[in-house]
Amino acid sequence: MEMDSRRSLCCILLLVLFGISIQYQCSASKIDADQTALLLVNASEASARKMPDTLFGIFFEEINHAGAGGLWAELVCNRGFESGASFTPPRIEPWSIIGNNSSVIVSTDLSSCFDRNKVALKVEVLCDNGGANICPDGGVGVYNPGFWGMNIEHGKSYKLVFYVRSDETLNLSVALTSLNGLNKLATKTVVANNVSNWTRVFVLLEAEGTDSNSRLELRSTTKGVIWFDQVSLMPLDTYNGNGFRKDLFGMLKALKPAFIRFPGGCFVEGERLKNAFWWNKTIGPWENRPGHYGDVWGYWTDDGLGHFEFLQLAEDLGALPIWVFNSGISHKEQVDTSDILPYVQDILDGLEFARGAPNSKWGSFRAEMGHLEPFDLRYVAIGNEDCSYSKYRGNYLEFYSAIKEAYPDIKIISNCDGSSKALDHPADLYDFHIYASASDMWFNASRFDDALRSGPKAFISEYAVHGKGAGKGSLLAALAEAAFLIGAEKNSDVIEMTSYAPLFVNDKDWKWTADAIVFTSSQAYGTPSYWMQHFFIESNGATYLTSTLQANPSNALIASAITWQNETDNNNYLRIKVVNFGSSRVTLSISISGLSLQSSGATKTILTSSNVMDENSFTDPKKISPVKTRLGEISENMDVTLLPYSFTSFDLLRKSISIRTVTTASDLESSF
């Protein structure tokens, strides 16, 4: 992630908030002293334009423990004991020892049965259930607190899988307990006589209590040496059994995203190439995945959420997958184009894994993982924020040519900005990122007004207010982002996709602010930026209408108008969205030409709060969230009130009428 080069001086925010005008065109304007404005909506056939079906989606990056300890429901942190293997002596955090040096010694060695995960945990139990050195009550061993506490819920079942070996008879107590170990939520005893070779153990634990700050314990009261490896604890009630935490998945599903971009972001690149995300190390049985250290964001991931799971996530969401892969470039290294062909072949293999027939080499691998049919992968991005690197264009062309030859239908996304200057290489789309202060984001609502109208379309894959005005997710940030998206609707003839970033943050690991969804092991809430995106769900594939604000030529209002069909009642609606970025209440006169409205059945939805820097929280998770009310009698000419610092949507029920939209040659080329 990086700041957009067009970022304006931060003082612009002060100018806006104190009412000093900044010139802006078309649908944005500031209100003069009488607090009124006029919005003209033209619904004529000449005005109507279909927006892309893919205009609004989501972007998932492994940052802020979004996946490890978040969306991916694995409860054990460092399940393979690999994350601290490079240290001397090796570290096992967050695993901790139960007992003291007179009763137990814990270390690691390289005796695992898994070729790509050689580290195993060695537990030497020095005490016994009799004799001179009697074990303390409950025994000794190790425990794992998960990712800042495991959420264990009464009545739910948890699947514990681990690998073990010992030359002695195994007598092991496995338990879910409170963080201090005093309150047991679930417990079982594992007894086995012949585990001299590595043995897979499965235990189903049924919780008899609830604690969002729990831990997993492995204890013994029998003297001897026990080796452990690949310890996994998963709740049974993940989404469709596919491993996704239900509440977090549900929040994504509620956005109805047209696409999901994954797995990064800088996570794809790494500071060093060895720490980049390599798809073929993240597939197959979870026990065989080596995991890797994400050196950009500073934590280990076991890659349980891997290439297959990302594709499955897209399918479960009903969204198109967009795979971002490494272009042979990290933050600090570049592969010379003369050496890039093995990397190109690796990506062709990854595409075959996703799209190949079940009897193909890599397609059969996917089929063995339980997905016989190919995934619907239509987009790939070559690298992330790599355009400035000297080797990028050469590497890009090698990837582009090979992919187009093998999969001519796949749309390829370049990292280079093609909005103001034609690209010097072929591409179907170009990637555009913008992180800016609230005032700059507002100002950038017009960013694509003068963009090139021919050539590749834009994929705004990362946008968000960051820095001044962002807080940890403020109303001000959401309003500025809403204005930017209204600008994206207006320019949807050259913008094909947009997605907010970052998507998730674990409340214990804020690597980046702000984010759309904040969570702990047991709770989650959407920031105002998350709720703001709900206003644009129906814009995918909707019809954009020309709208014009008439007021003083400065910018505290921006508006758009679309027509869309409600899937629930099959009625057709005119939706007018307006952001009031100013501190004054505004009376907006709306005049609609070209269509007729029903006098009833209209609603108003508003996002606002008493303070522009208000945020949501775990104690008040919906302090700033959409509030929907019914409107009284409406007509094609009416007045509405806009509250200060607000985002308002008016859904007006149309009388039966058909609007023909203008379809251009470029629209046909980009259709599916």
From TrEMBL:
Pfam families: Alpha-L-AF_C, ASD1_dom. It catalyses: Hydrolysis of terminal non-reducing alpha-L-arabinofuranoside residues in alpha-L-arabinosides. Keywords: Extracellular matrix, Glycoprotein, Hydrolase, Secreted, Signal. SMART domains: Alpha-L-AF_C. InterPro entries: Alpha-L-AF_C (IPR010720), ASD1_cat (IPR055235), Galactose-bd-like_sf (IPR008979), GH (IPR017853), Glyco_hydro_b (IPR013780), Glycosyl_Hydrolase_51 (IPR051563). One of its GO terms (molecular function) is alpha-L-arabinofuranosidase activity. Its main location: secreted. Its EC number is 3.2.1.55. GO terms for biological process: L-arabinose metabolic process; xylan catabolic process. Residues 461-646 form the Alpha-L-arabinofuranosidase C-terminal domain. It is found in: Secreted, Extracellular space, Extracellular matrix. Belongs to the glycosyl hydrolase 51 family. This is non-reducing end alpha-L-arabinofuranosidase.
